[in-house]
Amino acid sequence: MDDKKMILRLALAHAKGLGPVRARELLARLGSVEAVFAETVGSLSNLGLEKTVASHLLSSENMDFAEKERHFLQTNGVQVLFIGDKDYPFRLRECADAPVLFMYKGNCSLSAPKMLAVVGTRHATEQGRNFTHRLVADLAERHPDLVVVSGLAYGIDVAAHKAALEAGIATVGVMATGLDRLYPVQHKKVASQMKNQGGLLTEHFRGDALVPGCFVSRNRIIAGLCDGVVVVESSADGGALTTADIANSYSREVFAVPGRPDDVYAVGCNELIKQNKAALVTSAADVEFQLGWDNVKVQNAESSTFPELNLPDLSEQELRVVSEIRHRGGDMESSELSVFLGVSSSQLASIMFAMEMRGLVHRLPGNRYAIGRK
Questions:
Q1: Structure letter (DSSP) for residue 313
Q2: What are phi and psi of 7, to 5 degrees?
Q3: What count of other Cβ atoms lies within 10 Å of the Cβ of residue 55?
Q4: Can you give the residue ranges of every domain in the chain?
Q5: How far apart are CA 130 and CA 141, in angstroms?
Q6: I need a labelling partner for 23 at 20 to 30 A (CA). Which of 138, 198, 308, 372 fits?
Q7: What is the pLDDT of residue 296?
Q8: DSSP H stretches of helix in 125-278
């Protein structure tokens, strides 16, 4: 990508008061980031932007910042992922408030076949840390392609990262700060290891102030990146509950570890289960069942174990679905199919329902589809 385009992308994401939702709306209406910056303050105001927002977006101050940020990112080998890029994480892309751009330093795919968030209280108990370690270790043993995602915070978050590193699987930390500042700084060693066995990502720029809202925005990325979210321990008003609520709004699977009624750091998890906002989890098998990972069998795309289908009777879209599911090894998550076909979730639901009625596919737990009848 040429430097000018990178600068425009960074300037769009950095514009004060714009936000990811309106930035994506601008891109959808105008067609490209270049078209956005070809507008005037007046024409952007006519599109619904406040004059102050439009002025800062197009200002020399914003462009100068973007140029300096581009230089820093390229010098330090940081990958910049833009909402329109093919390597932008497909799960996150389907979330309406996904970042228009974020920075990533790491070596694992953010569209890995299996991605699971493990979050919880900063005041983790020994029991909570031990459960986290056992859960991650057990899942890693059976699913070496698993990526564990969390927020690099004290307690359960860092316990999940450490467990993944020890198990030899990738782990990704979503930061509430820019890349110039690690919070908390005590996790510097863990964060350094993660760059070589997973990665770190953030939507925040250097110099951004760390305010409470940064943690909420971080939590939405954690939820959006993953197939599911496990809450290990949480108080009645813990930040992990925000992640769980966001995950539910994204139609992600949510899990909670139950605890004693008199345990202050079990109240949040017990309430999630009580309100049917989370599935009860006591082992890796519970996660596997709910996400359909216990049904996944790696098979060759030409394997005779796939059901025989009369391919000439399939429409072009149906043929693409069947071919892609076969290519992926036997099953595929609905959000992946939506991105692959380039259709909305509602359009995909209609396509897959018609295919299911004809016995071409069947549903698995975790919003996954496999070829043929059950």
A1: G
A2: -60, -45
A3: 17
A4: 1-68, 106-294, 311-371
A5: 17
A6: 198
A7: 46
A8: 126-142, 156-167, 188-196, 212-225, 239-249, 267-274
- Residue 295, burial from CB neighbour count under 10 angstroms (0-12, 13-18, 19+): middle
Q: How far is the C-alpha of 296 from the C-alpha of 164, rounded, in Å?
A: 21
Q: Is the pLDDT of residue 323 over 60?
A: yes
b/e sequence 209-218, b meaning 16+ C-beta within 10 Å: eeeeebbebb
Report the CATH architecture of 311-371: Orthogonal Bundle (1.10)
Distance between CA atoms of residues 317 and 252, nearest Å: 25
How many alpha carbons lie under 13 Å from residue 63 in its C-beta half-sphere? 10
β-pairing verdict for 361-364 and 79-82: unpaired
pLDDT digits (tens, 9 = 90+) for 28-37: 999 999 999 9
Highest mean pLDDT: which of 87-91, 131-135, 309-313? 131-135
Q: What is the mean pLDDT of the chain?
A: 90
* pLDDT (mean) for 244-252: 95
CATH of 106-294, one of 2.30.36.70, 3.40.50.10860, 3.20.20.70, 3.40.50.450: 3.40.50.450
Query: Rounded CA gap, 373 and 78, in Å?
Result: 45
C-alpha dist (Å) from residue 236 to 121, 259, 268: 10, 13, 4
CATH architecture of the domain 1-68 equals Orthogonal Bundle (1.10)
Q: β-strands 101-106, 198-202: how paired? A: antiparallel
CA-CA distance, 88 to 91, in Å (whole number)?
Answer: 9
Question: Strand, coil or helix: what is 193?
Answer: helix
* Amino acid in the structure at residue 243: T
- Residue 173 token pair: 């930390």
For 117-170, what is each residue's pLDDT tens digit? 999 999 999 999 999 999 999 999 999 999 999 999 999 999 999 999 999 999
Whole-number Å distance between alpha carbons of 348 and 31? 24
Q: Which residues contact 269 (CB under 8 A, 6 or more apart)?
A: 231, 232, 233, 234, 256, 257, 258, 259, 278
Cα atoms in the 13 Å half-sphere on the side-chain side of 152:
28
Pairing, β 361-364 against β 368-371? antiparallel
What are 165's two structure tokens? 């590193």
